[in-house]
Amino acid sequence: MGSLFKAMSAGLTTSDRMFSRAKQEFGALDIFVSNARPEVPTFYQPPMEITLESWQTAVDSQARAFLVGAREASTLFRDGGRIIAITYAPGGRFGSWQPWVAMGAAKSAMECLCRYFAVALARRKITVNAISPGWIEDSVLNTLPEAAQNLIRSWHQGGWTPMGRLGTPADIGNAVALLCSEEAGWITGQLIAVDGGAGLMDAALPLEIQQAAPQSAATQ
Hints:
- The protein is of the alpha/beta class.
- Helix content is about 50%, strand content about 10%.
- It has a single domain (about 1-195, about 210-220), classed as Rossmann fold (3-Layer(aba) Sandwich).
- The longest helix has 25 residues, at about 50-75.
- It is globular.
């Protein structure tokens, strides 16, 4: 993951070498998934404090890496390929998670690029979509302090994710596999939430009023 981010953010020369190697080893590509992310401390600062270097790190890891990667990958695609970006859409819609400002903006830019590439590559039957996971085990979650991890798990298990659990890497992998299938050839330019229903919850109302909390959580 880190090497992919470094290759993408280093510019066209490095990415050319990476995709040239892919061409030598595989001949062609069918799927490109953009899921690179720098370490959290390199960009995790609120809007009034973030440095331009930290801001650029976030943008390079998402929008720039996707722009370079999608263009390079598409040159190796046969018609009918798949490009998928892994994003976190709530970070671009809301403003409450203050230290996520750079990554939220960078992810939003990447989502926008997905729509433009979807149109640009449609005549080649190449689809371009973004997947937005909810909170996932074995992810950025596990880089947070243990107390923060436990709070997040309790929050979602208590009802803020209707399915009552955090996601798993397999949940996201299954969604990627679905979009890569032949049957998904008519789906392009879309942002698809894979979050167990968390995006359906109304943050302005307590769970008890929404009547969406598990019985155990509502009666505690």
